[in-house]
Amino acid sequence: MNEQNTIRQRAVIVIGAGLTGLTTAHFLRLKQRDVEVLEQTPRIGGQIRTHTEEGFTFESGPNTGVISYPEVAELFTSLLPHCQLETACKASACRLIWKGKQFHALPSGVFSGLFTPLFTLSDKWRILGEPWRPIGTNPDESVGDLARRRLGNSFVDYAVDPFISGVYAGDPDRLITRYALPKLYQLEQHHGSFIRGALAKRKEPKSKRDRLATKKVFSARGGLSNLTDTLGSIIGHDRITLNAQHVTVQPQGRGWRVGYQQHGSTHLIECDTVITTVGAYALPSLLPFVAEEAMRKLSNLRYAPVMQVSVGLRQMHGMEYLAFGGLVPACERQKVLGILFPSSCFEQRAPEGGALFSYFIGGMRNAELMQMSDEEVAALVEESLHTMLYYPAAAKPDLVRIFRHTQAIPQYELSSGERLATIEGLQQQYPGLVIAGNLRGGIGMADRIRQATELGRRY
Ligand SMILES: Cc1cc2nc3c(=O)[nH]c(=O)nc-3n(C[C@H](O)[C@H](O)[C@H](O)COP(=O)(O)OP(=O)(O)OC[C@H]3O[C@@H](n4cnc5c(N)ncnc54)[C@H](O)[C@@H]3O)c2cc1C
């Protein structure tokens, strides 16, 4: 039987208990705001989920983030002592790129850049002229076109393309630089060159707060779920409603009415502010009052499908990879997008003497690989342990866990301008409605934390 519960009041409703929603609610609670989070699944964390099995600790969503903004360090500080920031060991500075039949270190300086086999000799010469190349005039230039124009084809193939695979699981020729890599776009627009811009940035005076953005690779001690679980505990479980199904938001007078179903009952909440942090694909049913044409401009955001495979070995078989991981350029035509080495970067990810790898497969350009059966995936990673990581033929993985994300990473493509303008328009038309989440403001965990901190301050 469908029972209707009484209507309750809250000041702010946050929809979605992923990193964005939880961080927003955390900062609102620190200001004593009367906030409640509605989450449709039975757990918090969203894409973040740490698993511990047979002595291995592995992630099924994001593995690591980068401390690109002070907000990341500040969030972790606010969670002490319950959750601790873990930064990757020095080995993580080494990034590998697949070329031919082996991984090569991505050059980290001028000397290694001169001798790397990744780039052609003519492009190595060409880069010397980068500071004098003209500034682009197309505001919607793709990442691929911009990098090709300034750096040359081999840099696109063996540096930009694998970087884009690693971050977006996307296609550099479809992603628009000013939305997908705004800092890179600004370097060219403000300084006329990547190299001159990077040097100027290095010289800029930095406040104590700026210095918190160390650019180090981070996780949480014991895995990223410790971050979201701690956020959940501090917000308070009485302020997080799980299993909230069919959530709908409707304007009502000068505020909002949020309805949802839970265990066969309908619940209604009246509030002043609603903050959505869900993916673009979830918005049509959530905001039914938005006109179809406007909604189409939000929900047409494409998400890359990504399969993540955690692979554990109890023995290293004499192999040790002191690196963050290896990425595979699209031109190399491998089925694997990249392999991360979490046990080389963080503590206690594998039993003593063992190793943990995290394989990424699929992405925008190989979406069909998501259809592989579990047996095919297991065979692919086992073969790659031998052919890509050079484990001896006798080495077999002791643990293989497969996670398929059909809507993993949003692609900031040409439609982004329209989407951002539509969000602005809706927020002005409907005061108290905030459309946040990864459909704007960046796709990484650091971006999510920054956006949420800002929302927590503002509402
Ligand atoms: C495989 C994979 C690898 C990644 N790797 C990295 C990485 O290496 N580094 C990095 O920085 N980032 C990475 N990311 C991105 C990172 O995970 C995200 O930036 C971040 O976790 C997104 O958090 P969010 O809260 O914005 O969204 P989500 O985590 O998607 O949270 C949204 C929440 O809203 C809920 N929800 C949806 N619809 C409704 C509804 N109608 N009603 C109520 N609740 C609803 C969902 O169930 C979910 O819990 C990766 C993502 C994936 C999937």
Tell me the major beta sheet. 7 strands, mixed
Beta strands, count: 21
CATH hierarchy: architecture of the largest domain: 3-Layer(bba) Sandwich
CATH superfamily membership of the largest domain: FAD/NAD(P)-binding domain
- Write out the distinct hetero groups bound to the structure: flavin-adenine dinucleotide
How many helices does DSSP assign?
Answer: 16
Radius of gyration: 23 Å
Task: Briefly note the structural class of the backbone.
Answer: alpha/beta
As laid out across the biggest beta sheet, the strand order is 9-8-17-18-19-16-20
Protein described:
It is a single chain. The protein has 16 helices and 21 strands. With 459 residues, the chain is of the alpha/beta class. It has three domains: 171 residues, 3-Layer(bba) Sandwich (FAD/NAD(P)-binding domain), CATH 3.50.50; 90 residues, protoporphyrinogen ix oxidase, domain 3 (Orthogonal Bundle); 108 residues, Polyamine Oxidase, Chain A, domain 2 (Alpha-Beta Complex). The strands form five sheets. It has a seven-stranded mixed sheet, sandwiched between helices. Helix 1 packs parallel to helix 16 and helix 12 packs across helix 15. The longest helix has 16 residues. The structure holds flavin-adenine dinucleotide (FAD). The site of flavin-adenine dinucleotide has 37 residues, from helix 1, strand 16, strand 20 and helix 16.
